[in-house]
Design goal:
There is one protein chain. By secondary structure, this protein is of the alpha+beta class. It has one domain. The chain is built from four helices and five strands. Strands 3-2-1-4-5 form a five-stranded mixed β-sheet, covered by helices on one side. The longest helix has 19 residues.
Length: about 150
């Protein structure tokens, strides 16, 4: 299921509004290290929170109410990651009043992490399943090779 133009715009506007609400503390970057994105299947609502559970913004994504519950977070993760990538390409994530590294995190109804959508450091690194697959095996092989020498 793809998000319609109206839903994409609503989510992007909510993300921009949330980022605009991040406070400066004494002119310095805030200590917020994660921006939490919490979608709701039944209402189609997306709520955006900081580390202290202060609501920064919200939007309604009507397409989410038609989603199959078992696939909801997988689809929401893909859609939100795509929209965050768009913001990153537009430069909307540069110069935020946040200490690096910080993350955009998909959370469930109990605010448990479902997926890390985007990690921002001095260089932005996108996280995806494909990036981390096989990492354990590669590290084990590298360690084995070092120990054999």
């Amino acid at each position: 299921m793809n998000l319609g133009k109206q839903s994409q715009t609503a989510v992007l506007d909510a993300l921009k509004a949330a980022l605009g609400k991040l406070p400066l503390e004494n002119g310095q970057s805030t200590i917020v290290s994660d921006i939490h994105l919490q979608p709701h299947l039944t209402s189609g609502e997306l709520m955006i929170f900081d580390d202290d559970d202060h609501e920064l913004s919200r939007a309604v994504v009507s397409e989410w109410t038609d989603c199959i519950p078992e696939e909801f977070y997988v689809q929401a993760e893909q859609q939100l990651r795509t929209l965050l990538q768009r913001l990153e390409k537009e430069g909307a994530l540069k110069g935020l009043p946040l200490l690096k590294p910080y993350s955009f995190v998909l959370v469930d109804g109990e605010r448990e992490t479902v997926a890390e959508l985007l990690l921002v450091d001095d260089d932005t690194m996108m996280l995806s399943d494909g990036l981390l697959q096989g990492l354990d095996e590669e590290l084990d092989a590298f360690l084995k090779q070092l120990l054999e020498e």
